[in-house]
Fold this protein.
Amino acid sequence: MNSLAKTLFLTATAAAITFSSIATASADDWRYRHNHNDDALVGGAVGLATGLIVGSAIASAPRYDEPRYIDPPYEYEDAPVYRAPPPRYYYRPVPVRAEVEPWTPQWERYCSYRYRTFDPRSGTFIGNDGRSHFCVAS
């Protein structure tokens, strides 16, 4: 059953109970009544009918849903990409010669540019293996 039909049915039932109780209560002459329990029953019936009417009116009231704010889905921005700067090589131009004889100024210049650990007195440099090697300019 839909809510309108339920409301009308309950309202009609409550009205019928209320009017039948009032009619019965007023049929007797009040002055000659010796039993006061009837007054309590009539009051209870009237209260019940009133409660049913008010309750059905509240229950059948239209419900207006308040608009709810819903957060939009979060959109991730492209995070900035941080890249390491290019390494700074201290480029020193190395003269390229087919062959440079050892112990000449050109050989010493080539070996000192080529190897950071070059020792001009011994003509050696310390390699990656930790040993000293004689510089050969090619």
